[in-house]
Specification:
The protein is mainly alpha-helical. Helix content is 52%, strand content 8%. It is built from eight helices and seven strands, in the order E-E-E-E-E-H-H-H-H-H-E-H-H-E-H.
Length: 222
């Protein structure tokens, strides 16, 4: 069934039985869209499709199953249109879930090195749509570093000239190089502690980069 370029104030796609074929609504303006999961077609094309509202919003996971019925490959606009629809209803969490799914779909078509970076962004801050994850990662790394360096404190670089050692603020200095409490410059870890310090610094930069990318993405959406 072709609805390409159709213009309507209301569109009712509910049928007695699911269409065992393709419904192509590419570049259509469907107004208020009526549909139901039990009548969704096997193949639904929604590239550049616009609708003013969904009469049955459903949850984001359910609507994502609706979008995945398309066979056009990765097309960002259907995700953005669905997220806009949720935002109009005030469902910001659902909108973020949809946009996160868009990034994951996009990742599958990227080269290997970019897919790996995408997995890191997904795991740490959910591509910027799950910023609380960054705070939880930082707290976990801060706790690990503080416990380790409390048991195995680093050595002072200049004996007699260094401030009293503080494991918490030393870990902060190592984890977040942009901040400095003077501990990182006054003490140097050795052996296993040195490798942990390297790991904390790398993790801090990754978290800072992904958070910055998420903030930039959020600003660009406004």
């Amino acid at each position: 069934m072709s609805l390409r370029l159709a213009q309507a104030r209301e569109s009712d796609l509910r049928t007695r039985q699911p269409i065992d074929g393709t419904v192509d609504a590419s570049s259509a303006h469907l107004g208020t869209l009526y549909d139901a999961p039990d009548s969704w077609p096997a193949d639904l094309r929604l590239a550049e499709t616009v609708y003013d509202s969904l009469a049955t919003p459903l949850t984001a996971p359910e609507r994502l199953d609706w979008l995945r019925r398309g066979t056009d490959g990765y097309v960002p606009q259907p995700y953005e249109q669905l997220a806009t629809s949720y935002r109009r209803l005030g469902h910001e969490d659902e909108a973020r879930t949809v946009l996160l799914a868009k990034q994951r779909h996009r990742r599958a078509a990227l080269p290997l090195h970019r897919r790996l970076w995408g997995h890191i962004q997904d795991a740490t801050v959910g591509y910027g749509y799950r910023p609380l994850r960054a705070a939880l990662w930082l707290l976990a790394l801060l706790a690990i570093g503080t416990l380790f360096f409390t048991q195995r404190p680093p050595v002072p670089l200049e004996a007699g000239k260094t401030p009293p050692f503080n494991a918490l603020f030393y870990t902060v200095d190592v984890l977040l190089p942009i901040a400095s409490f003077g501990q990182g410059a006054a003490f140097a870890a050795r052996g296993t502690g040195q490798w942990l310090a390297y790991g904390l610094t790398a993790a801090g930069w990754i978290l800072a980069t992904t958070v910055a990318a998420g903030i930039s993405r959020a600003i660009s959406r406004q």
